[in-house]
TrEMBL record:
This is Histidinol-phosphate aminotransferase. It comes from Mangrovicoccus algicola. It is an enzyme of class 2 (transferase). Its EC number is 2.6.1.9. Pfam families: Aminotran_1_2. Belongs to the class-II pyridoxal-phosphate-dependent aminotransferase family. Histidinol-phosphate aminotransferase subfamily.
Length: 370
């Protein structure tokens, strides 16, 4: 970056976020008749029917600013988690809150512990603020290295960022490992538990950190989103729950005053009125995930165990090339580009017909000479 640049020097180490391809970008390709959009971990079963009706009713108020605190939604979320509404902060998706947390807490030279391979924004927002990122990799079996994580947490660090389950690997902390992390946290460290895929993890050996939030005596924030299991990705709404009053005040100072729209708040409330719809979609997705994982392993591919709505698999060749080949068959996935994982793909779990299309396309691509 030139010395006379108007931008902060820390931005020179960042790359644009790979938001994934859209259906419109692929639809114009010759020979593509159906698109399987499996690159963004969306819930292809869709939102609850009541969401659309609630949005139609709310459209008459689009000329008014939304409630900046989202009080109705915060109260409902507090009831769901068993915490005071004042502990809830809303975000334009949970990744918005990752940005807000970084800007509110990090200083140049601070140390931040993340899991690796990581959701890139966990690292990018820390580096944006001049912090040093410490990566905790996976074990040879593709699990979270809890020994390395606990050792890193023993040193003075400003922030520990844990995606549970992990994106993209799908790995998770079982209840004993979560207890070990909570016990290892220093009193001068903020623990951020990113639980974007928590609804899918509930079908496995898993316990949410939110269950420990009230009793935990060190600063913690648990992040959730409506973009995944609840099917509201287009509306961009997530939230955090924190047991630290100082952090809560700081987040309000840093976030934009109206960072969640009225329509997004209304949609989230409507979705929460129909948990059975979400639970049915999650159950179908989990069943399809295990079916797809078995099919991929049956073809000799390494697939990591996952509690998310996605799988992480090693193609044995550059994943960028594999993903490009899949596009010719109308299949969108996400090739992973972080060092050490350049042959790995993350594929979202969609409908059974999406899985069938992906498997056929993948076989065709891998059958080509490397």
């Amino acid at each position: 970056m030139p010395e006379d640049s108007l931008l902060r020097p820390e931005l020179g180490a960042l790359a644009p976020y790979n938001a994934g391809l859209t259906i419109e970008e692929i639809a114009a390709r010759p020979g593509v008749t159906r698109i399987a959009k499996l690159g963004s971990n969306e819930n292809l079963h869709g939102a609850a029917p009541g969401v659309a009706a609630a949005l139609r009713d709310a459209a008459a108020a689009t000329h008014l600013y939304p409630d900046p605190q989202g009080r109705r939604l915060a109260a409902r979320l507090g009831e769901e988690l068993g915490v005071p509404p004042g502990w809830i902060v809303l975000g334009d998706g949970s990744e918005d809150l990752l940005n807000v947390i970084a800007r509110a807490t990090l200083r140049p030279g601070d140390r931040v512990v993340v899991l690796y391979p990581s959701f890139p924004l966990h690292e990018d927002y820390a580096r944006m603020m001049g912090a040093e990122v410490i990566r905790i990799g996976l074990t040879a079996e593709g699990r979270i290295d809890i020994d390395a994580l606990a050792a890193a947490m023993a040193a003075p660090v400003r922030l520990v960022m844990i995606a549970n389950p992990m994106n993209p690997a799908g790995a998770w902390l079982d209840p004993a490992a979560l207890d070990r992390v909570l016990a290892a946290q220093r009193r001068d460290t903020l623990l951020v538990m990113d639980e974007a895929y928590v609804e899918y993890a509930a079908h496995g050996d898993f316990r949410s950190a939110a269950e420990s939030l009230t009793a935990h005596d060190r600063p913690m924030i648990v992040l959730r989103t409506f973009s995944k299991a609840w099917g509201l990705a287009a509306l961009r709404i997530g939230f955090g729950a924190t047991n630290d009053a100082g952090l809560r005040r700081g987040l309000d100072l840093v976030r934009t005053p109206f960072n969640t729209s009225h329509l997004a708040q209304v949609a989230a409330l409507a979705a929460l009125e129909d948990p059975a719809h979400m639970e049915a979609a999650v159950a179908a997705t989990v069943a399809e995930r295990e079916k797809l994982a078995a099919a991929l392993r049956g073809r000799g591919l390494r697939v990591l165990p996952s509690l998310g709505n996605f799988l992480f698999l090693d193609t044995g060749r550059p994943s960028v090339d594999v993903a490009a080949g899949l596009l010719d068959h109308g299949v969108i996935v996400k090739p992973w580009k972080q060092p050490g994982y350049e042959s790995w793909l993350r594929v979202s779990i969609g409908l059974p017909e999406d899985s069938a299309q992906f498997l056929a396309a993948l076989q065709a691509v891998l059958d080509r000479p490397a």
